[in-house]
Specification:
Layout: H1 5-15, H2 21-33, H3 42-58, H4 62-84
Helix pairs in contact: 1-2, 3-4
Length: 85
Amino acid sequence: MMPSFRDQLIHQLQCEGAFTETGARELTDAAIGEGIEAYPGELALLRTIVRTARVAVRNRDFAAIEQALINHASDDAAARAETKR
């Protein structure tokens, strides 16, 4: 039996070394479980990180990807906290 899309995504995130198993599961569940933006501008924020990653990969600037992921995690957490208020 072929793994589900969710399991494949979790595996890919872990293989890239960007996330622990728990982090990969949380990110995947948040991405495919909500179906709508968790806060206004979430989709735009995700599109920005994807564009940044594409350029950084082309230039083999993996430090830029790592920094973009760190910045995204911080911005995302702040936006989610603000939305819960």
